[in-house]
User: What shape does this take?
Amino acid sequence: MWIRDEFEKNCDCLNERESDLHCFLSMQTEKARARMLRQEELLAQVGEAEARRRFPLLGMTLGVKDNLCVEGFPATCASKMLEHYVPVYTATAVDRALAAGAILMGKTNMDEFAMGSSTETSCFGPTRNPWDRERVPGGSSGGSAAAVAAGMARAALGTDSGGSVRQPAALCGVVGMKPTYGKISRCGLIAYASSFDEIGTLTRNVEDAARLLAVMEGYDGRDDSMCREAPTSDYRSALAGGAAGLRIGIPQGWLGEGLSEDVKRALLAAVERFRTAGAEIETTELPLTEYAVPVYHVLSFAEAGSNLGRYHGVLFGRRAEREALEEMYDATRARYLETEVKRRILLGTFVLAGGNYDVYYRQAERVRQSLRRNFDRAFRRYDLLLGPTTATTAWKLGEKLADPMAMYLSDSYTAAANLTGLPAVSVPCGSDSRGLPVGMQLIAPAYREDMLLRAAAAWERIRENDA
Ligand code: GLN
Assistant: This one.
């Protein structure tokens, strides 16, 4: 039956490529197999329609990023600090996906505490890009994106605070979606920057993204402050909507300086195809997007500095034993956190200290508000905004590791949707001259995931028909 066939295919890919690509930090394929067999039995007993009614995600193998808690299973955040940490509860989103039938294959590799764009800051070694093993898969959800691209799992969960689902999706040639901030509970997501952190999906196609979202979204009392009972819609009929009549704006600045020729060519070709299918597309002004990266970094570092204050060796994770308490805090952090995490804690503390608060933090918060207004204004004229997901395709391992600024700039097109909390998706859109995947990003108004999915599915069909 198909459940077993799909599962065996995933396992074959795992056996063949995992030792080379290193997508997973821990696996539980035996437990997964047992679950698959139970589902197969159910399918035989009650038939496809009834089995799917009970389990909407029947047979869907799932990788889960290692900053999401699963009870009894390590959640390391790819950090030595949490190397032996085993959560005592399961993240709401994961819980809902599993209750709907998803089959957990394992926990995926990531940048340490989700801080990075290449999965190279993982303390347990980098993930490689399935399209070219000398290149990065993107990050920070690089393990999730690579696992799906390599066929090791049908879908994976990631987190996206500045682009960490969409950017690796683009670099690995899969669909990466983050919904509106507040649509999916953050309960069980180990915090990096709380006003940005979101759970998103990495899938082979748009339909699977919609199915996962439908199961995971909705109010959760365990994330009461942010998670809302938001308007939901019938995503299945949205998927059938088509491109005709969609009004789409392309922020002028996203086609300018910094964008590689390869990505631009693929993107403009996609825009032409979209137009032929009936979408109305034009370029537009969207002021302040050029400040998205610095503003995101000031605010997210400030939040990271305070969130990571909990790792002092007392409550969670590792401890470096010392006689005096202060010394223990210092030694624990010095020994068990790596460079990028330390850099963010230090810079985050700096932007909040004394007079710096007004100069950096408050100023960044103001720009964030203005940016929100500018997006609102744009959405009075357009159903969606469109642009590249990344400036370039996947780069070589090690190429940007010593240059934090170059690494940070890879969030240039993604960070705005985190600053504004808007739903956004990256869909594959052709390839560069080396054959590496290019991603196209779509952004919708708040809570208009239906619109986002409609356009993404329409684009997917255009591509399939062209192929
Ligand atoms: N690449 C971004 C960063 O380094 C995004 C991280 C994220 O979304 N978790 O901060």
Observations:
- The chain has 16 helices and eleven strands.
- The longest strand covers residues 424-431.
- The radius of gyration is 21 Å.
- Residues 309 and 345 are 8 Å apart (CA to CA).
